[in-house]
């Protein structure tokens, strides 16, 4: 699989050339780190509906730049329209979606290092994003354990027969 060149890489130019065995190989513009990001089943299903063609996946659909790659600013505008049309993502931001993905991976049992490798964040940032979810999961595990212990100690009353 051909690797995108770091110097010429732009997120808006993400296309088939970035797919590597079920994930995206995306060098980070800010840090140069090159994580391997899995293509989750929901995205994979969506991608199956996309037109198969060379070049970037996301192209501008209208205007003087029709057919050119979507820019970061245009992605924000598209995202804002989606938030207006659907109440669920109200107040959501890109970074929050990334944090949600980190938490989802953590809840599925992946380690901080595994998640870091997938999303390109430091393990410390993964731990920070996951802190509340980890505490909640730990508390819920304690409750489950206490309930199981209580059930084990319950003595059944026997009816006496006359």
Describe the model.
The chain is mostly helical. It folds into 3 domains: 1-57, no CATH class; 58-89; 93-148, Arc Repressor Mutant, subunit A, CATH 1.10.10. It has helices spanning 41-47, 72-85, 94-107, 112-119, 123-153; strands at 23-25, 36-38. A two-stranded antiparallel ribbon has the order 1-2. The model is unreliable at 1-11 (pLDDT under 50).
Keyphrases for this structure?
single chain, 162 residues, Arc Repressor Mutant, subunit A, two-stranded antiparallel ribbon, 2 strands
Task: Please give a quick description of this structure.
With 162 residues, the protein is mainly alpha-helical. 46% of the residues lie in helices and 4% in strands.
The helical percent reads 40-55%
Rg, Cα atoms, Å: 23 Å
- Overall shape: it is elongated
Q: What is the count of DSSP helices, taking H or I runs of 4+ residues?
A: 5
Oligomer class: single chain
Low-confidence stretches: 1-11
How do the SSEs run, as a string of H and E? EEHHHHH
How many beta-strand elements? 2
Name the strands of the widest sheet in spatial order.
Answer: 1-2
| Cα-to-Cα separation, first versus last residue | 82 Å
What proportion of the residues form beta strands (DSSP E)?
under 5%
Q: Helix/strand-derived class?
A: mainly alpha
Sheet with the most strands? Answer: 2 strands, antiparallel
Look at the structure and give the mean pLDDT. Answer: 79
Number of domain units: 3
